[in-house]
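Review this:
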Amino acid sequence: MSDAPACVDSSADRRPTPIHDRLDRAKHRHAVAQARQDGQSQRAAVSGAGVARSTLRHWNASPAPSAPAALSAFVETPEGVVWLRRILVAAHWSIGEQGGAGVRVVCDFLERSGLSAFIGASYGTQQAFHAGLEEQIVTAATELRGTLAQSMPHRLLSIAEDETWKDGMRLVCIDATSNFILLEQRSDERSAAAWTRALEGGLEGLNVTVVQGTSDEAKGLLAHVERDLGAHHATDLFHLQHAVSQAMSLSLKRAEQQAETAEAEAKARWQEECAAEQAYHRRRHGPGRPPAFAARIEEALNDHVQASLAREQAHAHRAEAKALIGAFGEVDHPYEIQQGQAQTPEQLEARLGTRLEAIAEEADLSERLRAHLAKAKRLTQSLVATLTFFFMMVNTRVQAMDLAPAIEQAMLDDLIPALYLERVAARSTRAEPRHRLRALSAQRLAPLRQPSHPIQSLDPQTRHHLEQVAGECADLFQRSSSCVEGRNGFLALYQHGHHRLSPRKQQVLTALHNFAIKRPDGTTAAERFFAQPHPSLFEQVLERMPWPARPARRRPRPARPPYLVPVAA
C-alpha cells in the first residue's frame, strides 16, 4: 500500500478557506442559532455572525444524515466537530498505527460504527488523512525529542545493539535501561564504521556518554563499542547458553533417541515371545518337550526393563543438562540471588567453571562439539569482565558523592543490592522466585528505614538523590540484549503484515515506541530516558490535524441491465 496521498492533500498549507472550514461553519451556525433564540431576526442574526444568508441556506439545505437527531445536532456544534476529529485521529492511531491494520479497516470501522454519516469514509479521503497523520507524528516526535534534550541531565548509557534483516538490514540500538530507541535505520553494511556513523546521528543533541554496549560477538560490533566508543563490551548471556546448548543438545538428544529405540525394540521382542507362547498353546501338538517360553519371556522382560531404565536415565541426563544451562542465569549476577551478598569476579568465574565441568561430564562430546564448549569457556571470561566493570563503576560513582563512611557503606552493602534484587524480581516469570526476591530486597532495606540509621538524618531531597543514584548503579549491570531482540521481532511481524516498511512508517513506529507506548507505571520510554515528563504525543498531533471531511452525497448507481435483453430487429 502506498504511503503517499491518493488524491487529497491534508497538509496544513492547503487547509480549506474559513467559510468552508468545518469548525468555523459550526461556530457560525451556533452563533446564528443562539441569536435566533435571543429573539433576533434571521437577517440580524446572520449579519451579526458575519455570514451571508445564502451561505446559511446552503448549509441548512444539507441532507439529514441517517443517524439519531440528537447526535446529528451535536456533531454540528463546535464541540461535536472537535469530538469527531478526536474519534477519527484515535481510529487511525489505534487501528492503523499501533494495531497494524490498513486504511480500509478504518473505513470499515467508520461504516459499521455509523460515523460515516458525519465523516467521509471513502478510501481516498481516509488514506490522505492517514498520510497526514503519519507526517505529523514524525514531526511532533522530532520536536519533543529536541525540547526534552535541551534540559535533560547527563546520563551514562548502557546500550544494546543488533541488526534485523526483515525488508533489508536495519541497525537497531536501544538504551537498555529506559527502552528508548536511539537508532533504527536501514543500512547497507554492518561494519564498525557503519555502526559508529549511525549511532552518532542517533545520539546527536543528547547529553549522554556511552559506557557499555551489550550485543553478540560480531567483530564489527566489538570494534564499534570498544575501539570507536571506548566503552566496555558486555557479552549477552544468551550466547554463552547457546554455545553450551550447541555442545550438549545433539549428543544428549541422540543418546535419548537411541535409548528410546532400544526400549521399543526390547518391548517388541517381549511382546513377540508372549504372543508366540499364546499361539503355541492354541494349537494341538504331538509328543515332545514344548519350547522354553518362560525362560525366553523372562529374558525378554529383563531386557525391556533394562532398556526402560536406560531411557529414563538418558531423559534425566538431558533434563539435568537443560537445568544446568538455565542455572547460568541464576549465577550471573553481581549480587547472588540467594542471600543478596555481593559476588566477586573470582566467585563468578569459579561457579561458571563448575557448571561447565558438570555439563561436560554429562555426555561424550566429539571434537566438533567440544569446540562449542571451548567457546563457552571463552565467553565466561567476558562475563567476569562485565562484573569487574560493574563494581568499578559503582564504587567510582558512590565515592564521587563524598558521603559519610557509614552512609557510603550502606549504599554499597544494602541500598544498591536491594534495588538490584527488586529489578531481578520484576523480570522473573514465576511467582515463587519473584516473591522471594522481593522479600529479600525488603530485608536488605529494613535497616536503612530505622530511625536510628544515619541515612534517616538526611533531608528528604538528599535521600531521594541517594535512591536515584543507587537505582542508576543497579541498572549498570547489563547481561542481555533482549530489548533489541524483542524490537526486531516486532518489526518482523509488522513487516510480515505490510510486506514492507517505508522510511516514514519506520519513523512512525519509532516515535510511537518512544513517546506513546506506556508501561504499567504510566511512563513512556522518553520520560524514563530524559528523566522528565513530556506532553502527550497524541494531543500534540491531534491539534495539528485538519477537521474531518464531510461525507459526499451518495449518488444512486444505475441498475445493471441483463445481458440477454432482446433488441429490436
Notes: The two ends are 50 Å apart (CA to CA). The beta strands are 155-164, 170-175, 181-186, 208-215, 232-235.
